Each structure stands twice: as C-alpha cells, then as structure tokens.
Amino acid sequence: MEFLGEVAAWFADPASWEGRNSIPLRLWEHVSLSVTALAMGMLIALPIGLAIGHSGRGARAAVAITNIGRAIPSLGWLGMVLPITLVLFERGGLGFLPALIALVALAIPPIVTNTYAGLREVDRELIDAARGMGMRESRILAAVEVPIALPVILAGIRSSAVQVVATATLAAVVAGGTLGDFILQGIFVRDLPRVFGAALMVAALALATEGLFALLQRLTTSPGLRAGEVGRAS
Amino acid sequence: MRIHRTLALGAVLLALVVSACTPGGGSTSPSASESEAAKPAVTVGSAGFYEAALVAEIYAQALEAHGYTVTRKLELGERDVTQAAIESGEINLKPEYLGGMASFLGADVAADPEVTFANMQAKLAEKGLVALDYSPGTDADGFVVRQETADQFNLATMSDLAAVADQLVWGLAPGCPDNPVCGPGLQSTYGIDISQLEVESLPPCSTQMAEALNNSAIDVAQVCTTQPDIARFNLVLMADDGGLQPAQNVAPVVSTALLDAAPDDFETTLNAVSALLTTDVLTALGVQVAVNQESYADVAAQFLADNGM
C-alpha cells in the first residue's frame, strides 16, 4: 500500500505536470508517435493487403516479406535504423524518426495478413454474382469484398494499434521521449513508483486503444453480417 | 555509475549492440597439485556485466597460476545479489567498485579514492569482509566530446566544458535532474544548469549515446569512463577537475576468513593484478570482450601473459 501511495504521490506532484519532462508532454510524444506509426503502417499495409487479397496473387511473397517486421524485434529495428538516421540527419536522426520506422515495421504485418485473410474469406459466389451483374473489379472490391471483410481488417488494425502503443515506450532508448522515458528515468535513479506509474499509463493507453477499435469494429460491421440478425431475418 | 552500465548493456542495449553475449569463460582448473593443498579454495563471483566478469576472471587465473583452486560464479546479477552471495559464503571473492560498494553499504563516497576506500573498508569489516588494494583505473560516470569539439573550444576538463555548455547539445541520462551526481552535481560543482541546456535523453554508457555523439547529433555525451566506445570513436574524456564523481576504482572484496587462511601470495597476487588496471587498460580490455566478442578466459589469459604473470 505504501508503494501505491508513492505512485499516487508521483502523479500528484505538480512537478510531474510541467516543464520538459512532464506527463502531458510524454503522453503527447507517446500518442503522436503511435498515431503516426499506425497511420503510416495502414497506408503501406492496406493497399498491399487489398491487392493480394483481391487478386489472390503474390500472397505468399507479400506475407513473407511483411512478416520480417514480426521476425525482427522492435529493439532490433531501432538498432539497425539508428546508425543510418544519425548519419543522414544528425540530431534529426534521434528520437521520433528511428522510433517511427521501427513502429511502422511492427504495424504492417497484422494489417497485411488480416486484410488478405479477410478478403479471401468472402464467399466466392458473392463475387461471381457481382461480376455477373457487370460490376468492375474496383467496384467489387469496394462494395462487396471490403464491407464483408471489414471486421477482420479492423481486427488487424486493432492488433497493430495495441502493439504500437505498447512498444512506443522503446523510443526512449533513442531519445524519443514517450512514457518509456519515465520508465528509464525510474530505473536509472531507482525510483520504482515512477516506473510503475508510467507502465500503468502505457497499459491504460493500450486498453483504451483496444476499446476504441472494438467500438469502431462494432459500428462499422454491416448489419447483414451480425450473426444474430442474420438468424432472425431468415 | 554501475547501474548505468549494467542496465544500459544488460537490458536496454542487449539487442542494440552486436550482442549475443560471450559466455563467461569458466573452466575451473583441476590441476592444483598435492603440495599446494594448504591453499584455501576460492570461489569468485561477479556482477552481471562484462567488465566485472572480466576482472573476476583475471583475478581467478592469476590465483590459479599460484596454485589456488578457483571456482567461478561470474555474472551473478546486480550488487544486491553478489553482496548476498559473498555474505552467505556462496562466493568468497568478487571485484567491486569503490563508490558503488561504499554507497551500497551506506558509507560516504568521495571523489578521492583513498577516502572512499577507507569508508568502504570500515563497513565491510562489520560483515566479515575486507577489500584489498584498489586499481589506479576508475569506471565512473564521465562526459566526453568529439575530438573536433575539444580542439575547437580547447576542452580538457569539466570546468572548460562548463564555460561553453550552452553552445553544445548534451546527451544526458533519463533521470539526470534527479541524480545527485548528475543534474544537481553539475549545477553545484560546475555551475552547469542542465535545465537551460539543449538536451537529448539517452541511456548513459550506451552505444546509442556514443553513436549519437560520433554522428554530431549531440556534442557532449554522458558515458562510463571505461566504455569501449571511447576508444572506438576516439572520444575525449573531460577530466573531473571539480571532483564531482565518486571514485569507482576496482578492488577485490574477499571474506576475512579466506584472507586469514591463505598464504601471503594470495594478497600479493591480487594486489599485483589490481595495480595493472588503469582506466586505459580497462577500456582496452573492454573493447576485446564487448566489441570483439573475445571470451573472458582468452582475454584474461592474454592480459596476464603480456604482463608476465
């Protein structure tokens, strides 16, 4: 209990809320890095996933390549990327940029695989029917395949988002700040309440992300796909 | 400080550095001859990072050369673990750092190794332990700059650095403002107010810190004074002329029982080894194990052979 009191005292300390090592600043670094990484991950992964999912071609290669992102741990990405960004951008090569690259690599694989899997699961007869009605391929993708596959695609994005939020803590080892900086600070000055308080915030952020996407998934699922309602309709 | 190095290399950096840690080179020598049977058995332990383990291995081999039977328990963990081990008798010899050991035992630390050593010795005695002579070299926190920066501003000491502090970008440890020998110490000893500086927060004694400095992302880096990167990147260590950093010279801590039971060559052998360990030597040996990935056993054997021991 004493320990939790110390954690609460860290949160209550006005010094934790102002200056260049404040909770709001670290939180902002964490969220902005995570959001950017997820957005860039989606920008890269969704077109790949849609292309291979719709055509069924190149799937094995694409999934294998993006899975490199999974095979290499994020700390490994940071280690490989940092020397390059430092040489290219000097001080700009510290912090946000190397952390972003590592997190984008982390974000891509679940989105590619889920998008691909979601599209492949769409009933072939539906697609044939759409084609028979004279729909163009792009229209089939947009009006038939994506709406039906959306829950699976969103599940991939959700999984990426949660991983990115949790892993963004690592940015602290390359001067990227984030809530991970509090964790390092706490370790270096033996201030465990600070480590715990920061870890708590990361966990809360990850849970909030999870909840947000769960909600999004619910809202965007086509009514026709909800099992219960399908049952009632028939 | 020790925890910096331990954490930076042990935890944070594990995957960043070339890594795949070299296993502790630990074959015990079974060849203690009958005539040497009077020599007590030695069990050497060490903290969980390369420098402590290497120094422990050097002590071990030096003792073996004098007929001692040595068991190795290297890389046990952090100081709380190694200290529990030596107090319980699981090990009876370990290399230690004066300042780290002294503050762990609640003794006062100072920049003067003699003072720190005496304070530590008094506390060790209460636990049935004793430290032998300390090394001339020290593995303390320090600040380095690139050679070109040193030339440009004519920098050799921390006081020199303080005069141009606001023109440089500093790489400082996370938590520096709360660490007495970092933020507050820089302020009180050198008049450097880190809240007014351009700062990047990086793990101290880490390879990222050294690479950031070498690539001009920062101009001043907080390092450990025997960090291999200093030699690797030809960095210039600022002399701690104000005496901010507590002495972190290396000394073997042994159980009093072992020292009493052992003949004189035990103490003279360890003291002779410690006398060889200058900061430059520790740095160079660190390059061999941490960068070149040579085994502790090989590096220790070569070092002792080179010094005729």
In short:
The complex is a heterodimer of chains A (234) and B (309). By secondary structure, chain A is mainly alpha-helical.
Topology of this protein?
The complex is a heterodimer of chains A (about 230) and B (about 300).
Chain A: H1 2-12, H2 23-55, H3 59-66, H4 68-71, H5 74-89, H6 96-120, H7 124-132, H8 137-167, H9 179-188, H10 192-220, H11 227-233
Helix pairs in contact in A: 1-10, 2-6, 2-8, 2-9, 3-6, 5-6, 6-8, 7-8, 8-10, 9-10
Chain B: H1 2-12, E1 42-47, H2 50-65, E2 70-77, H3 79-88, E3 93-97, H4 98-104, H5 113-126, E4 129-131, E5 141-145, H6 147-153, H7 158-163, E6 169-172, H8 183-190, E7 198-201, H9 207-214, E8 220-224, H10 228-232, E9 236-237, E10 250-255, H11 256-261, H12 264-276, H13 279-291, H14 296-306
Parallel strand pairs in B: 1-2, 6-7, 6-8
Antiparallel strand pairs in B: 3-10, 4-10, 5-8, 5-9
Helix pairs in contact in B: 2-12, 2-14, 4-5
Short key terms for the protein model shown above:
heterodimer, A: 234 residues, mainly alpha, 11 helices, elongated, B: 309 residues, alpha/beta, three-stranded antiparallel beta sheet, 10 strands, globular
